[in-house]
Write a structure and sequence with these properties.
Elements lengths: L1 H17 L23 H4 L2 E13 L4 E6 L10 E7 L1 H4 L7 E9 L2 E9 L2
Parallel strand pairs: 3-5
Antiparallel strand pairs: 1-2, 1-4, 2-3, 4-5
């Protein structure tokens, strides 16, 4: 009977310790397990090439991103907004905060990468 109470107490202790802990995610970027019958829509995986106009609001060379306050981008079905995009060092090194720019964008799902940037007067 003593062992039963001890086992019960240890079980409650382990359960209480596990409460509030987040599940760990795999360290690699690969997905594990089966995708089952999860359907992928073509729009989520097929790149869309788009053009936009906006103003550079921030540049993070370390992260390789450029933040643009842009007008609507109809090809991506995005309204006007401010968002960060991945960009090559040739873009982040030459752009300056406050510049009005036209840009080419490669969109996959809800993310985009600026592939070309042209300053506007």
């Amino acid at each position: 009977m003593h062992y039963l109470r001890l086992s019960f107490a240890l079980g409650l202790t382990a359960l209480a310790a596990a409460c509030g802990q987040k599940a760990e995610t795999p360290a690699s970027s690969e997905m594990t397990g089966s995708m089952g019958n999860m359907a992928m829509t073509p729009a989520a995986t097929t790149p869309i090439l788009a053009k936009g106009h906006g103003t550079v609001t921030a540049i993070d060379k370390g992260a390789g991103t450029i933040t643009l306050a842009h007008d609507p981008i109809p090809e991506a079905k995005w309204p006007a907004m401010t968002m960060a995009f991945k960009a090559a060092p040739t873009i982040t090194d030459t752009a300056q905060v406050g510049e009005k720019v036209d840009f080419d964008l490669r969109v996959v799902g809800n993310t985009g990468e600026v592939t070309a940037l042209t300053r506007q007067p």
